[in-house]
Amino acid sequence: MPGELLLRKTSLVDYPGRVSSSFFFQGCNLRCPWCHNRELVIGGAEGLVSAEDALAHVRKRRSVLGGVVLSGGEPCLYEGLPGLIEEIKNLALPVKLDTNGTLPAMLETLFSREETRPDYIALDLKIAPDRYGEAGGKLVESAALIRACGIAHEYRTLALPGGFITGEDIEALAHLADNAPWHFRPFRGGGCLDPAWDSLEESAADAGARAQALAEKARELGKQAACAISEVSTNAKNSTLFCVNFT
């Protein structure tokens, strides 16, 4: 069972079409300079609760909840994740898993038993796999597992400023995606893991146009892509991504 985590008791945006509670795990195996979950990645988050207390909340609210989201940080880091999912599913609640896709061994474990299979998966597609370094191969492997697992899923990409992500990245990532929804979101500065990224925030119009352009590129490649201009999911503005320390 994982240790302490950040609990969002009620969310209308973290699980598509459902009222959910969201568990944000501490720790991440990657370091995105633009990540807004700084305290979850490097430690120091306030208001943490134990996993048992989070489960107690879910048990109490099960009659009004439509599901539970496991996010982070990176939830697949935790060896106790299968048992946690099983406990939640025993409450007759579906589970959504948010992952950066660099830990395929855990995904294989989760998919191997009906009791531990998530009901929905959100996979972050950041930039071209060959820009991930050693983690790129793991992402490719995870994407293949998700395409083949029969579980409903979506893809998420942050439209990073300054041309950090380009149409060439989308072309490379398109090979990892099937026809599941692919959501593109604008970047917003403020509280980034690397403070230098805070100064890169563009106007709302420019950031939205950048996200729209990347989504259009994905659509040209036959993908079901859309741009989410105003939606903010999970507990931080750029928390659609939990990425490596790119150069």
Folded structure, characterized:
With 247 residues, the chain is an alpha/beta fold. It has a single domain, classed as TIM Barrel. Helices cover 29% and strands 22% of the residues. Strands 3-1-2-4-5-6-7-8-9 form a 9-stranded mixed sheet. Helix 4 links the parallel strand 5 and strand 6. The longest helix is centred in the C-terminal third of the chain and has 17 residues. It is globular, with a radius of gyration of 17 Å.
In short:
This protein is α/β, with parallel strands linked by helices and 247 residues long. 29% of the residues lie in helices and 22% in strands. The protein has a 9-stranded mixed beta sheet.
CATH topology (level 3) name: TIM Barrel
Strand order of the largest sheet: 3-1-2-4-5-6-7-8-9
> Could you tell me the radius of gyration in angstroms?
17 Å
CATH class: Alpha Beta
Q: How are the elements arranged and paired?
A:
Elements: E1 4-15, E2 18-25, H1 38-42, E3 48-50, H2 51-61, E4 67-71, H3 81-89, E5 95-99, H4 104-111, E6 120-124, H5 135-148, E7 152-159, H6 167-174, E8 182-186, H7 204-220, E9 225-227
Parallel strand pairs: 2-4, 4-5, 5-6, 6-7, 7-8, 8-9
Antiparallel strand pairs: 1-2, 1-3
Helix pairs in contact: 4-5
